[in-house]
Amino acid sequence: MAGPLPLGDPAPVDGRLPADLPIDPAVPFSAYLHVPFCRVRCGYCDFNTYTSGELRGAKQEDYATTLISEIAIAERALGEAGALRPMDTVFFGGGTPTLLPAGDLARMLDAAASAFGLAEGAEVTVEANPDTVTPGVVRTLADAGVTRLSIGMQSAVPHVLSALDRTHRPENVQTAVAAAKDAGLAVSVDLIYGAPGESLGDWERSLDAALELDSDHISAYALIIEDGTKLARQIRRGEVPTPDDDLQADMYELADSRLAAAGFEWYEVSNWARSSAGSGSRQDNRSRHNLAYWRGSDWWGFGPGAHSHVAGLRWWNVKHPAAYAQRLATSESPAAGTERPGEEARMLERVLLLSRLAEGIAVEDLPAGNRSRVAGLIADGLVDPASALGGRVRLTLRGRLLADAVVRALTD
Questions:
Q1: Which of 138, 166, 181, 280 is the most exposed place for a label (fewest CB within 10 A)?
Q2: In terms of C-beta density within 10 A (0-12 exposed, 13-18 middle, 19 or more buried), how is residue 328 classed?
Q3: What is the mean pLDDT of residues 174-180?
Q4: What rounded mean pLDDT belongs to the chain?
Q5: Which pLDDT value is given to residue 284?
Q6: 3-state secondary structure string across the chain
Q7: Which fold has domain 29-294?
Q8: First CA to last CA across the chain, in angstroms?
């Protein structure tokens, strides 16, 4: 399970938004729907997820109805604030959303669409474990309005999947992708590199397998050891080695090279998208939902532990599904806390998020006292000089590998 919730101010029991919240109706609005259930907890995962043995006081079969109750609270709160807007993107994340019956996911999407509306051409994504994807499931999702499936492939190598505690067989990924495409869904596959015992050759094999799937989008994330996870405990006991930073850098460079050669273009440090045929753009298949986060749009997060952001106000829900259900059973908001970050914190976040995008961040959006540091970052090969001369800070390949150092230089 994830770590403790952040500290903050008490959240209103009725879920209402502050009367002075400066909501801009032109800002895009998104919804995140968290499904906190997993069959097995992966050793590296610190997300707010629960296996069946950890669900005391909560039932999976009641979950869709419970979450729909939170949608009703959000509809009232946004309506009273004059901020009801159609959803540009919807994302079902987890956990494993497809552990729920596809009909439950469809009900949740229909409730959100009825409350807020769906913008024309809205992107609606469902995360899925390959073992839970069948032709029947994806047809139900497609009929409900889902447009995109994000499949947790992680690796094509059995011993790497085992090191990550992933339970699916590599061949099931191909079956899941084929089913999604047959239903007319766009497809993204997620990869993780740097697992204990994974070699550069293993990673190359996974990249080749992902490219053979002919998906529209590939995410590749370096394995990060999070405190409190099974993997962190194994490393602390000396049972498995700590990930090698140099090897992970080699893996990232290999991924970028292979994906670029296959017609993918990076648009965020860990994400690559392929152009649609004849579109004239190489970024049509970017995750619009994730871009909404990185660009600071408004979103409401539904479900246990979900976080929300509207007009600079942030709040987060109680973590356990039982506590979440108990709040909503009495028509109370499940929000556990709220905060309005100050200008300095918002500036740090803007730099942290926007600098990771291929489009970069405008030099004029950096803290005024730190803009002169861009020259040093160019000299170190971390920032593209031509883009900087044009007024934007864009990371080079070396800069992507050292993105955290770039952020520190621009914000400290």
A1: 280
A2: buried
A3: 97
A4: 94
A5: 79
A6: CCCCCCCCECCCCCCCCCCCCCCCCCCCEEEEEEECECCCCCCCCCCCCECHHHCCCCCHHHHHHHHHHHHHHHHHHHHHCCCCCCEEEEEEEECCHHHCCHHHHHHHHHHHHHHHCEEEEEEEEEEECHHHCCHHHHHHHHHHCCCEEEEEEECCCHHHHHHCCCCCCHHHHHHHHHHHHHCCCEEEEEEEECCCCCCHHHHHHHHHHHHHCCCCEEEEEECCCCCCCHHHHHHHCCCCCCCCHHHHHHHHHHHHHHHHHCCEEEEECCEEEECCCCCCCCCCCCCHHHHHHHCCCEEEEECCCCEEEECCEEEEECCCHHHHHHHHHCCCCCEEEEECCCHHHHHHHHHHHHCCECCCEEHHHCCHHHHHHHHHHHHCCCECHHHHHCCEECECHHHHHCHHHHHHHHHC
A7: TIM Barrel (3.20.20)
A8: 32
- Cα–Cα distance between 240 and 231 in angstroms, integer? 8
- Mean pLDDT over residues 182-200, rounded? 97
Provide mean pLDDT across the span 123-127.
Answer: 98
Q: CA 388, 359, 30, 404 torsion: positive or negative?
A: negative
Average pLDDT over residues 260-270: 97
Whole-Å CA distances, 331 to 33, 55, 58: 19, 21, 17
The label of the residue with tokens 């273009």 reads 265
| pLDDT tens digits along 322-373 | 999 999 999 999 999 999 999 999 999 999 999 999 999 999 999 999 999 9
Task: Please list, in sequence order, all residues whose beta carbon lies within 8 angstroms of the beta carbon of residue 199, skipping any fewer than 6 positions away.
Answer: none
Residues paired with 307 in a beta bridge: 316
Q: Taking phi first (over 0 means left), then psi (-120 to 50 degrees means alpha), and beta for anything else, what does residue 34 get?
A: beta
Q: Which of 81, 62, 72 is nearest to 21 (CA)?
A: 81
Nearest to 156 by CA among 190, 185, 108, 120: 190
Nearest to 100 by CA among 9, 146, 15, 37: 37
CATH 3.20.20.70 domain residues, the chain: 29-294
Lowest mean pLDDT among 34-43, 373-382, 387-396: 34-43
Given a contact cutoff of 8 angstroms between Cβ atoms, the answer to whether 391 and 401 are in contact is: no
Return the structure tokens found at 311.
């007009």
